[in-house]
Amino acid sequence: MSVAARRDSTSTAETAEVLFARYGPRYRIYVTVVALLGTVSAIVTTTTVQVALPHIMGAFGIGQDRAQWIITGNLAGTTVGQLLSAWLIASFGQRKTFVVGLCIFVSSLLVAAMSPNELVLVAARVVQGLMAGVLQSLTMFTLFSVFPPEKRGMAMGFFSINTILGPAVGPTVGGLLIEHFDWHSVFYMAVPFSVVGILFGSLLMPEREETAKRADFDWLGFALLCTTMSCLLSGLSNGQREGWSSDFVMGSLAVAGGAGLTFIAWELHVKQPLVHLRVLAVGPFAAAACVAVVFGIGQFGTTFLIPLFVQTVQGLTALDAGLLLMPGALLLGIFMPLGGYLCDRLPARALLMTGLSSFAVSTYLMHDVDVNTSFMWMLMCVVISRVGQSLINPTLNATAMRSLHATQLRQGAGMINFFRQLGGAFGVNLLSVSLDRQTFHYSNRLASMET
Question: Could you tell me the pTM of the whole model?
Fold first, then answer.
């Protein structure tokens, strides 16, 4: 009787096969839209907060060195969430992970909007990052698994769209909200998208086979990973203020290094690791991971720095900062599916080199911008970088995932996004330190000239 009951339970689970049988080939479209709808909520929030950062600094009376934790904390949470996703999907299935993740994300949005101080806001942003990381990796795994091999490059182009809609819509809408309301409103904006994602995700995301064995959670690995990330980012972000040779900074970096090495050793020997590091033994995947780190430094670092620079140095409004980013993001939306299409037909190396070269050119053109740099020059630099990104993102994702066995896809989706976010966390920290140092230097020079 119990065996029959188990069979009935298994037969009623709405797995991908059951949903394909119900909806036919159209199911790929349905699940793509739903997955992207949930993920874009996290991306939109990230970009709107970047525009709102100067206003948050003024509201809480904090400087750049403390305010950057609002961004860095989110990125750190996202990097950890990327690696949690594989265990969550294997243990609870795509549907439960997606729906519960979005519910927690909505709750953290409301907490952030009502934050009484920066500590509560940073904590809420870390939770948002955790859920965003889980949702991004889940979305990549879902799209890669429902599309056939010959269309997976195009699927990664669709996945990369979620990185477009945020930069395209977030800064401009965020600027409008700040102009007419205040910084709290940028968190409320993503709530409707998330609620719609919860409703449709509970119907269309695949469920887990109930007969599948649930793996034990690697609590020690998780604790070591969190310790590594928090101490590393804390040391980097406080280096300028405390001094790079101070006990606090040196101690933080030492703890991060020790915890990181222990994490690697533990993950290589534990029976059920949080992260299957042996995936990095696959040559093409390891190469893609290295490119992802470097690209993440530039992508997230410049996306963080440009809105902050034009508002705090050039005196533009939040709306102007949003309008500066919008054309490039819209162009990215046009070229990203094309990049995915080309990825199915052209050598990945050629596409990556072309994209990285475009991104490098745009970064070089911005190396000497100052208070007198024109709006159109900044806009042109942003557009060039976004064209490069349209070739890099889908090619990088497809190259990494194609090199793995089907049983490694869950881990691969989390790890390639982890390395990109890790680079982003470094980029934001390092550019924030550089901006602080340059601001301090030129403020002193100006003061000496006036006296």
Answer: 0.73
154: exposed, middle or buried (C-beta count within 10 Å: 0-12, 13-18, 19+)?
A: buried
Cα 140–Cα 333–Cα 160 angle in degrees, nearest 5: 15
- How far apart are the C-alpha atoms of 13 and 221, rounded to whole Å? 31
Phi/psi for 210 (5° steps) reads: -65, -20
Distance CA 126, CA 132 (A): 10
Residue among 73, 60, 100 at smallest CA distance from 197: 100
Q: In angstroms, how far is the first alpha carbon of the chain from the final one?
A: 91
* CB neighbour list of residue 261: distance below 8 Å, 6 or more residues apart: none
Q: Give φ, ψ of 389 to 5 degrees.
A: -65, -30
Is CATH 1.20.1250.20 correct for 17-208+274-441?
Answer: yes
The answer to whether 318 and 174 have CB atoms below 8 angstroms apart is yes
Domain map of the chain by residue range? 17-208+274-441, 218-273
279-333, pLDDT tens digit by residue? 888 888 888 888 888 877 777 667 767 877 787 777 887 778 777 877 877 787 7
Cα 248 to its chain centre, rounded Å, is 28
193: Cα within 13 Å, side-chain hemisphere: 24
Taking each helix axis from N to C end, the angle separating 283-312 and 64-113, rounded to the nearest 10 degrees, works out to 100
